[in-house]
Amino acid sequence: LGAKLGMASQLVYVLIGLLGVPVFANGGGPSYVLNPTFGYLIGFIIAAYIMGKIVESLKNISLINMMISTAVGFITAYTIGIPYFYIIYNFYLGKPLSFIASITMMIPYMIKDMMLAAIVALTAWKVLPLLRRTGAAINPGTPQKK
Q1: What is the block-wise mean pLDDT of the chain (146 residues), using blocks of 10 residues?
Q2: N or C terminus of the chain: which is more exposed, having fewer CB within 10 Å?
Q3: CATH T-level assignment (fold) for domain 2-134
């Protein structure tokens, strides 16, 4: 999708959920911003943009480049998600939890997400060159329609 459309897709997803459509793990609605995991949704929006920028800048698609892109997305989502989780858990829900415990609680999810990121990288490595050849994906240096 690229940076802008990738970010837009995640933004639409989050907005649909905030409007009340139960697309999130625990439902939806405006109050979902007070859910400890909402920070990950914010992270997805930013990660989609950054990952899209990385891939848009690549002239050649390699497995290592796709792994780097997904790793950056993973790090972005967790860099935003964990502090948000910690803040909501401690200051809104009033449940004492150390920052280290907030990280430790996420380890099983991190392991799963690292495996999924590897699958996404492998898939993108195989599929993106085909999409670029057909014009269905952004090619670096090609003027894009506004």
Answers
A1: 90 96 89 94 96 87 91 96 97 95 95 95 88 72 49
A2: C
A3: Arp2/3 complex 21 kDa subunit ARPC3 (1.10.1760)
Q: Specify the pLDDT at position 117.
A: 94
Residue pair 45/14 in contact by the 8 Å Cβ criterion: yes
Other Cβ atoms closer than 10 A to 100: 9
27 DSSP assignment: B
24 forms beta bridges with 27
- Residue 96: count of CB within 10 angstroms of its CB: 8
| Cα gap 98→88, rounded to integer Å | 12
Per the document, the length of the chain is: 146
The H-assigned helical ranges of 19-143 are 38-56, 63-87, 99-134
Structure tokens at 98: 């150390």
Three-class SS state of 14: helix
Domain ranges of the chain: 2-134
Instruction: Output the pTM of the full model.
Output: 0.83
pLDDT at 143: 44
